[in-house]
Amino acid sequence: MLEALVAFGLVAFVLGFALPIVSGAAAQQARRLQDLNAAEFAVSLAEAYRATFPQMEAEGQDPAGWAWRITERSVAPDGQTSLDPVMRLVEVQITVWHIDRRAEPTTFSTLIARPRS
User: Of 20, 62, 94, 111, which has the maximum CB count within 10 A?
Assistant: First the structure.
C-alpha cells in the first residue's frame, strides 16, 4: 500500500511539472500557427493586389473571418535612378487580422514597381 502511495505521489509530482510545460507549448504552437496563417493570407493579398491593381479593394473581409487593409506610398529607397521617368516604386503595407480572435493586427510590407501613368 505504501509503495502505491509513493508511486502515486511521484506520478502527481511529475505531472504537476509536465502539464504546465505541455500546455504552454501547445498555446505557443497555436499562436505560431495563427501568425503563419496571417503571413500566408497577406502574401496572397499582395499577389492579388499586384496582379489586379487598381481594381482590388483596399479593405475587405473574406468568408473565413480574415479582414485586411492595404495602404501604399511612393518610395525611393536608393535615391534617384535612370528609370524614374518610366517606373516608380511603391511600398504596399498589408494589415491583416482575424475578426473572431483577440490577436493584434499584423502588418506586412513589400515593394512593387509600377509604370508611371
Answer: 94
